[in-house]
Amino acid sequence: MSGVKIISLEVENVKRVQAVSLAPAENGLTIIGGDNGQGKSSVLDAIMSALGGESKLPSKPLRDGAQKGEVSLALSNGLTVHRTFTPRGSYLKVSGNAGGQSVLNEFVNAFALDLSTFLQAGDRERARILLNLVGLDLKPLEESYKKLYADREAIGRLATRARQHAEAMPFDEAAGLDLLTPSEIMDELQRKLAVNAHNENLRNEAARVAQEAEAAEARMKARLKRIDELTAALEEAEAEGKAEGQRLAAARRCLVVAQSKAESLQDENVSALKSKLAEIDAANARVRKNLEREKALAEAEGHKAEYAGLTAQMDDIKREQAA
Dihedral of the CA atoms 247, 250, 252, 253 (nearest 10)? Predict the structure, then answer.
């Protein structure tokens, strides 16, 4: 909680102070001044007694004749500290945090100035202590100074090299240092450049029109070629159509002759022949049945003969067994 500042301070009846109210500036150092015995140290003791806890309490915090003393501080971290002194003791109240004295101990040292260390320190260390107390950080300024110093050194070296280079260059006394102003020549040059630009635009336009005309001519040639192709195809189709017409006429004449011949034809009566073929098919069916019967009888005879042969072989075996 570093960098905590006192926003407002009110002290009443503490040591030599009867009543004091301060509102330190947001930035900078607030100096409490006055003659000896007017309460400068009492204000500091009041601040430390309010923030520092029991170890920072003065032996006699109450102003002579007072029965109650108070110190109130508003801090930049949002805390409000109020300490009350009575003959029976002191009482602390910290608004904005439940930590009480423990939360004050985290930053109370930031308000203290160790005078013995401060007096023994050198000027640079004293400056650092005071700047730290008022919350000022000069490091950014020191770094900016160092950077500017380095930049100045670099610019100085560039200036030296530039002067040495310039002094080594020749100087034409007759030419002097005044530049000529050829305004009339520049005007004439601008006019001629404008004419040339206009001419160039016209040339570009003519080239563009020529390209368009060339493209149109190419497209026209392509169309004429296509027309010639279509004309030749039409003539070929007309010739094929004429030949097909001749073939159609001849086919129609053949059709008339064929139809005339067909009308004069007389069909033969085949019903009697179909009846005879049916009778033959019926007779053949009976014959095929007879043939099948004969075939079956023949197979039976063949099986009978085979049966007799096997029986004879069996008889032979029996005779051979008996012998």
Answer: 180
Counts of helices then strands in the chain (DSSP H, E): 7, 5
Residue 215 confidence (pLDDT):
92
Q: What is the pLDDT of residue 204?
A: 93
Backbone CA torsion sign across 58, 62, 65, 71: positive
Pairing of strands 17-22, 6-14: antiparallel
- Rounded-to-integer distance, Cα 38 and Cα 40, Å: 6
Phi, psi of 100 (to 5 degrees): 60, -135
**Which SS3 state, helix, strand or coil, does residue 53 take?**
coil
Q: Where are the beta strands (DSSP E) in the chain?
A: 6-14, 17-22, 69-75, 80-86, 89-95
pTM beyond 0.70: no
CA–CA distance, 225 with 231 (Å, rounded to integer)? 10
- If we measure between CA atoms, which residue out of 115, 52, 110, 44 comes closest to residue 76? 110
pLDDT at residue 97, rounded to an integer: 65
In the three-class reduction of DSSP (H, G, I as helix; E, B as strand; rest coil), residue 62 is classed as strand
Residue 208: predicted pLDDT:
92
Distance separating alpha carbons of residues 126 and 133, to the nearest angstrom: 11
Give the residues of the chain that fall short of pLDDT 50.
Answer: 1, 110
Residue 1: the pLDDT is 41
Tell me the C-alpha to C-alpha distance, in Å, between residue 96 and each of 9, 37, 82, 103, 251: 17, 35, 12, 11, 121
3-state SS class at 121? coil
Please give the helix or strand (H or E) that residue 104 lies within, else none: helix 101-105
Query: Using an 8 Å Cβ cutoff, are 24 and 6 in contact?
Result: yes
Q: How many alpha carbons lie under 13 Å from residue 282 in its C-beta half-sphere? A: 6
